[in-house]
Design goal:
Mean pLDDT is 75; it is low at 1-59. The chain has helices at 13-17, 27-33, 54-62, 65-73, 80-102, 110-137, 146-158, 164-187, 194-215, 223-237. Helix content is 64%, strand content 0%. Helix 5 crosses helix 7. The chain is mostly helical. The chain is built from 10 helices and no strands.
């Protein structure tokens, strides 16, 4: 990723914000609030821009506070809390994948291992979806290393001492809260991210639906997991956001 650090090459900021989700009605406001003529206080960015959306991920660093608060309130640019939340979602899904795969060494029945593999695959798919959004904002370099995440998840595995039914009961107790969290996160996201974040919510719903069916000893308990993976195949294969 090319750096967006300050350079000695001024650019016309109003021309670049047209590449964001900011409506034209606000562009004149930017032109009045931000000098763009190379004078003191002008915005300097290294060119060429490697992706027009990356400017959106840097607005928190370069906009005056009043403008930033206005656009954040209108959900036209991401807040720092939102970007931090994206990082957290991705990292926790990576840990979830490692956790469920690791549990195969604890729950040794073939059927249980198959189910754990699907749970891990759903978590991995969700991490990939979150990564697409992170990449859009150019903040993927801020992720904690995979090896560090794996250490934490592997510790969860080593501490595991529940029976299979207790694991399912835990999912039934904890996962509704996760569904609500992801739904709220999606609702408060910039409009351009809502579709992919909707899939993040659906992944948690699939995990919960699996647990409900598994609790009832339904032989088709993995159907929600397989359906989610099938529904998101094209999303992952696509190079577009």
């Amino acid at each position: 990723m090319k750096s967006l650090e300050a350079s000695n090459h001024p650019i016309n900021f109003s021309s670049h914000i047209r590449n964001t989700l900011i409506p034209n009605s606000l562009i004149s406001l930017f032109s009045k609030l931000l000098p763009v003529d190379g004078s003191a206080g002008s915005i300097f960015l290294q060119q060429p821009m490697d992706h027009p959306h990356r400017i959106v991920g840097r607005l928190n660093d370069i906009l005056p506070k009043p403008v930033k608060e206005l656009l954040s309130g209108l959900k036209l640019i991401p807040t720092q809390n939102y970007l931090d939340g994206l990082l957290t979602i991705h990292q926790e899904e990576i840990q979830g994948k490692v956790y469920f795969n690791g549990l195969k060494g604890y729950y040794t029945e073939t059927e249980q291992q198959t189910k754990l593999g699907l749970l891990a695959e759903v978590e991995s798919r969700c991490a990939s979806i979150a990564f697409k959004i992170l990449k859009k904002y150019g903040i993927e370099h801020l992720l904690v290393s995979t090896s560090e995440l794996e250490k934490v998840a592997n510790q969860w595995v080593s501490d595991e001492n529940r029976e299979w039914n207790d694991l399912i009961d835990y999912m039934l107790e904890a996962y509704p809260g996760y569904v609500n969290y992801f739904a709220a996160f999606q609702a408060n996201s910039p409009s351009g991210d809502k579709a992919l974040l909707g899939l993040v919510t659906k992944h948690e719903e699939a995990l919960l639906d699996f647990a409900k069916l598994e609790k009832d000893s339904n032989e088709n308990s993995v159907t929600p997991l397989k359906q989610f993976l099938s529904d998101t195949d094209d999303i992952i294969l696509s190079d577009t956001y």
